[in-house]
Amino acid sequence: SSDRQTCVDANRETFYFTNQAPQWQEKFNGSGGAWYNLEQDIPEPTGRDTLYVVQGVLFEGTIQTLPSTDNKDVSIPSHFYKLLMKCSFNTSGAMTAANGVAYLFTNEEHAGGYSSFATTIREIENRTGIDFFTNIPTEFQEPAEKMSNQLW
């Protein structure tokens, strides 16, 4: 929500049920949690750079559920992922470079740092069956999706 302050409609979109999933709060997405710390450390793009961020959930293994107030079970994701693709452009608007990294967390308490959760975008694509960043030219997309080093 705090990243979507350009207009009321953009902010409202962050509150759709399709943009929500049960997640550990205190030691994962609460202050000091690994997911929270990652979100706080993602840099704002500078100059002609554009940072694309994709996040989502995985349902692997035995799926746990919680009852809801309308007696329907709510599935709890086994993992959360965040993909970052930073693209750089020259003055004429042509892409000159792309760097990528992914983070994959099990849905449980993870306090502190997040660097040990770094993986490749390709790993997440393989696990989800989704081809992310399809509009990035192949010569930049392919190498960037195989990177697992942090962007900053």
Description:
- This protein has 152 residues and is an alpha+beta fold.
- 22% of the residues lie in helices and 28% in strands.
- The chain has 5 helices and 6 strands.
- It has helices at residues 8-12, 25-29, 34-41, 121-128, 138-145; strands spanning 50-58, 64-67, 73-76, 79-89, 95-106, 118-119.
- It has a 4-stranded antiparallel β-sheet with strand order 1-4-5-6, with helices on one face. The protein has a two-stranded antiparallel sheet with strand order 2-3.
- The relative contact order is 0.17.
In brief:
The two termini are 23 Å apart.
Provide the descriptors you would attach to this structure in a database record:
152 residues; alpha+beta; 5 helices; 22% helix; 28% strand; globular
Beta-strand segment tally: 6
Low-confidence stretches: none
Shape: globular
Distance between the termini: 23 Å
Number of helices: 5
**Which value, in Å, is the CA radius of gyration?**
17 Å
Query: Structural class, from helix and strand content?
Result: alpha+beta
Mean pLDDT: 89
Helix fraction by DSSP (H/I, runs of at least 4)? 10-25%
Please indicate the percent range of residues in DSSP E strands (runs of 2 or more).
Answer: 25-35%
Main β sheet profile: 4 strands, antiparallel
Please give the order of strands in the largest beta sheet: 1-4-5-6
Series of H and E elements: HHHEEEEEEHH
